[in-house]
Amino acid sequence: MNKRADHDYATAQMHPASFPGAADRMARPLGEATVRALELIRDLGFFDHEVAVAIEAALAAPQATYPPADWDAYYAQR
């Protein structure tokens, strides 16, 4: 039980690997709750400045960047 508790404690303290989690790739239009949540996270100031910039980019994206309309062009770009 202690081993599991230690693991859960360490997991809870982990820094997110990616945030805001590729929101710029999400289907458009973003839902009102999603936009409000992203704005709240951005405005809290708890995360690094880069997070606020990423959220701004996600909110400004006119369309999802994934899945691509042209898979061949997507693979060529990679």
Detailed description of the structure:
- The protein is mostly helical.
- Helix content is 55%, strand content 0%.
- The protein has four helices and no strands.
- The protein has helices spanning 2-12, 32-44, 49-60, 71-77.
- Helix 2 runs antiparallel to helix 3.
- The mean pLDDT is 80.
What's the rounded overall pLDDT mean? 80
Strand and helix order:
HHHH
What does the largest sheet look like?
none
Structural class: mainly alpha
Helix content: 55-70%
Which spans of ≥5 residues are poorly predicted at pLDDT below 50?
A: none
Q: Based on CA inertia axes, which overall geometry fits?
A: extended
Strand content: under 5%
Distance between the termini: 45 Å
Question: Could you outline the blueprint of secondary structure elements for this entry?
Answer:
Layout: H1 2-12, H2 32-44, H3 49-60, H4 71-77
Summarize the structure.
The protein is mainly alpha-helical and 78 residues long. Helices cover 55% and strands 0% of the residues.
List keywords for this structure.
single chain; 78 residues; mainly alpha
